[in-house]
Structure to design on (212 residues):
């Protein structure tokens, strides 16, 4: 299980699409496809994050879970505005995007995680994993030896910046705290959910890259 997790994590965070941004060989039509689809994704992601916030608010644990998640929602508000301006910069129409199968599957997965019977520990683990994949992927494109094209720097900064890294570590801490207290049943569910997130992320990159 650990080996599988490790392999999938690498597949999700070092995908050929990301590597092509990092080495400057990226096909701009792939980038545009990703941009249009990711805008759709982010709009679906907001209600999921809101559902995690509701679950956090029902926990009597101390801690600043609510503040961290609320901060995440606030940055999604900026992110939606960023997508709109970025899309107009690249001439990507956002209003009539044909939602790709991989995106639909990912939405359906998120909808299931929004159900009240899904444990907070499972939902927050998924939330952390979704954010962490983007953070690790785009931070890789900002490393000193990367050749990321200047017009894509802004995109990489959005998720690869140090503040976003700090936010992901806060989410990870919350998830770890919940998992330490979880029953073995919940732990298993969290583990399976984590792997599903990685699979959906790989499928999402595949779609951008045009190999799905
Ligand atoms: C497919 C996917 N996964 C994770 C993120 C990052 N979270 C919010 O922006 C994203 N934008 N898109």
């Amino acid at each position: 299980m650990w080996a599988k997790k490790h392999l999938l994590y690498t597949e999700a965070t070092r995908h050929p699409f990301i590597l092509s941004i990092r080495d400057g060989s990226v096909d701009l039509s792939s980038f545009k496809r990703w941009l249009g689809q990711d805008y759709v994704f982010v709009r679906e992601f907001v209600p999921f994050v809101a559902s995690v916030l509701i679950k956090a608010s029902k926990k009597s644990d101390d801690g600043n879970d609510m503040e961290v998640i609320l901060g995440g929602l606030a940055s999604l508000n900026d992110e939606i505005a960023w997508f709109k301006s970025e899309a107009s910069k690249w001439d990507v129409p956002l209003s009539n995007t044909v939602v790709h199968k991989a995106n639909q599957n990912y939405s359906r997965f998120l909808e299931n995680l929004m159900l009240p019977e899904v444990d907070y520990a499972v939902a927050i683990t998924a939330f952390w994993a979704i954010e962490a994949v983007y953070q690790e992927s785009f931070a890789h494109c900002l490393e000193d030896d990367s050749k990321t094209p200047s017009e894509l720097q802004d995109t990489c900064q959005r998720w690869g910046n140090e503040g976003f890294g700090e936010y992901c570590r806060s989410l990870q801490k919350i998830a770890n705290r919940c998992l330490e207290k979880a029953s073995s049943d919940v732990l298993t569910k969290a583990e399976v959910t984590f792997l599903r997130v990685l699979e959906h992320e790989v499928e999402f990159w595949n779609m951008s890259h045009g190999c799905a």
In short: The chain has one domain: 31-84+111-209.
